[in-house]
Amino acid sequence: MESNSMTSDHSAYVTHWDPTFLTCKGAKNGGKEQKEYPRYCVIILNQPIENKRQIINVCNGAWRIIYADGGANRIFHTARTDDEEKVLAPDIICGDFDSLENEAADYFANNYDTAIVKDGNQNKTDLQKSLRQTKNFASSDDDKNDVSAVVFGGIGGRFDHGFSQLHHLFQENVDADYAFPGRIYLVNTESICFLLDKGLNHIKIPLGPGLFGQSVGIIPLGRPSLLTTDGLEWNLTRQITEIGGLMSTSNHIKREWIEIDTSERVLLTIELDPTEA
Questions:
Q1: What is the pLDDT of residue 147?
Q2: How far apart, in whole angstroms, are the C-alpha atoms of residue 46 and residue 75?
Q3: Distances from the Cα of 71 to the Cαs of 76, 78, 123, 168, 211, in angstroms?
Q4: Whose CA is closest to 131, among 74, 188, 171?
Q5: CB burial class (10 A; 0-12, 13-18, 19+) of residue 121?
Q6: What pLDDT, on a 0 to 100 scale, did the predictor assign at position 204?
Q7: Is beta strand 212-219 parallel, antiparallel or unpaired with respect to 248-252?
Q8: pLDDT digits (tens, 9 = 90+) for 111-145
Q9: Are 58 and 21 in contact (CB under 8 A)?
């Protein structure tokens, strides 16, 4: 990392991020034995599969795989080789099963011992139920209790569904009743997004084929945030950003490590380079 780091106005604590494992190249260079990357669970929601190769690459290094209700149908009806199917095989299918097809449930249960876990609580979404299952996995592990969730199908499709998933990012990190032990990444074909912590954040964003594109956005969804950035084409210095006011969207990454100092949790979006590495 470059040495001209900023001094945080809000906390002496620095949060480090390296989402490279979510890129085509990073995922293929990772795998279950890659110690550099975090332990993570892949959650597949009930949305069209537009990035099968990316899902396969990321699932190859996953600690657990969960299909949320009709997400099982999406994979079941997607053409795949035997090797691809082994990588994609879920540990759990969970939800209220209002959309799960019996044929898909029986197939995965019979061929891969997938657990079928029904949760009929109508006050919880499929994502919340899947995060609870991820948390249960982590809590039963004697090794450690830190695990991230990588969610496919969380952004894209219907706007109300997309906003619901963004809402859960804040809820899972703020509401103690829904506390989640790790980070949550939402992934689609073109980008990833996740919540930055308050204070100083160092984020590794390597550019290039199969890695990241140059575009980045910092979205203050919860409340106005005082931002200072370094490593972007258009940096901010103690600038108030808010919905309806100034926002840093379509900014450009100028070096591998960027720094964002924020007074509130903000959503970071990063463009993916779709090149298959």
A1: 87
A2: 9
A3: 9, 11, 19, 18, 26
A4: 171
A5: exposed
A6: 96
A7: antiparallel
A8: 999 999 999 888 888 888 898 888 888 776 655 55
A9: yes
**Per-residue pLDDT, 20:** 92
Cβ neighbour number for residue 76 with a 10 Å cutoff: 19
Would you say residue 262 has pLDDT above 50? yes
* Cα–Cα distance measured from residue 51 to residue 66, given in angstroms and rounded to the nearest whole number: 17
> What was the pLDDT predicted at 116?
96
pLDDT in tens, 162-212: 777 787 777 765 555 556 778 999 998 899 999 999 999 999 999 999 899
Token pair for residue 247? 């926002």
153 φ, ψ (degrees, to nearest 5): 95, 5
Question: Which residue carries 């084929």 as its tokens?
Answer: 209
HEC string for the chain = CCCCCCCCCCCCCEEEECHHHHCHHHHHCCCCCCCCCCCEEEEECCCCCCCHHHHHHHHCCCCEEEEECCHHHHHHCCCCCHHHHHHHCCCEEEECCCCCCHHHHHHHHHHHCCEEEECCCCCCCHHHHHHHHHHHHHHCCCCCCCCEEEEECCCCCCHHHHHHHHHHHHHHHHCHHHCCCCCEEEECCCEEEEEECCEEEEEECCECCCCEEEEEEEECCCCCEEEEEECECCCCCCEEECCCCCCEEEEEECCCEEEEEECCCEEEEEEECCCCC
pLDDT-derived band at 2, boundaries 50, 70, 90: very low
